[in-house]
Design a protein that fits this description.
Strand content: under 5%
Shape: globular
CATH topology of the largest domain: MetI-like fold
Radius of gyration: 23 Å
CATH superfamily of the largest domain: MetI-like
CATH class of the largest domain: Mainly Alpha
Number of domains: 2
Order of helices and strands: HHHHHHHHHH
């Protein structure tokens, strides 16, 4: 029992180190490199110090303008992601059921992957408004990633289990919710998690180029124009934290789903 409990404690310790201590050490190293680089440059208009950036970071969090911009960017991110996920799921299921549909979609997905993002941004800025363009741009980039992941997961469903369900005349509803969805989610949730954070980064980049008002990208564009580098770094830091938080929330939501599986 003592030996077994010791092994368990070592596993818990290693898990804690991987989850907390090592990321903190990495962040400290990055901040140290940043600090010495800013001292070497000696210009807040090129590279502000971490202290200046953190001051602007907390100052931003106390303004209504930031929270309005943050909420609009996050809303656009969720809208584009939800529509992308739903559309990718429908297309993947159609491709799984009808192989001819898969053959038709395959070159289209390849074209979407090969299309330069900047070209898509410029086209949508001409065709739509600065508020709508970032949503469509993010959808076009995320959609092929989600479609490929879901379609691959559907093809990798254990065929023996499906055959056994047919033999025992398991209801289609149970096959879908107790066999197909758990297996598909198990192999796609990591892709979903990374796609959501990528979607946020794409959204902010598109907002910068579109000069979207009331957005994190719009705040970045304003900071760039007025050479407020510490403000720009602070907004970038906030965007990174939000992206990491979104990934964490997806992974957290996956725990009860895994127990359900």
């Amino acid at each position: 029992m003592i030996k077994g409990s010791g092994l368990y404690m070592n596993k818990r310790l290693n898990k804690t180190l991987n989850a907390i201590l090592y990321p903190i050490i990495l962040i400290l190293i990055i901040f140290l490199i940043w600090y010495f680089a800013s001292i070497a440059v000696n210009s807040e208009f090129i590279l502000p110090t971490p202290t200046q950036t953190l001051n602007d970071f907390f100052l931003l969090l106390s303004t209504k303008t930031f929270w309005l911009s943050f909420s609009h960017t996050l809303l656009r991110t969720f809208i584009s992601f939800i529509f992308s996920f739903l559309l990718a799921s429908v297309l993947a299921m159609l491709s799984f059921q009808f192989k001819i549909f898969s053959k038709i979609l395959s070159p289209l997905v390849s074209i979407l992957r090969a299309t330069p993002t900047i070209a898509v941004i410029l086209l949508f800025l001409i065709w739509t408004t600065p508020n709508i363009a970032p949503i469509l741009i993010s959808m076009l980039v995320i959609l092929p990633i989600l479609y490929t992941s879901i379609y691959s997961s559907l093809n990798n469903i254990n065929k023996d289990i499906l055959e056994m369900c047919k033999v025992y005349k398991v209801r289609k509803k149970d096959i879908i919710f107790k066999v197909c969805i758990p297996q598909v989610w198990a192999s796609t949730y990591l892709s979903v998690s990374s796609s959501l954070s990528l979607n946020l980064k794409l959204m902010v980049a598109a907002e910068v180029l579109a000069n979207t008002t009331n957005s994190l990208g719009g705040l970045m564009q304003g900071a760039k124009i007025y050479f407020e580098m510490s403000n720009l770094m602070a907004i970038t830091l906030i965007t990174i934290i939000i992206a990491l938080l979104l990934e964490f929330l997806i992974n957290l939501a996956n725990r009860p789903i895994r127990r359900w599986q």
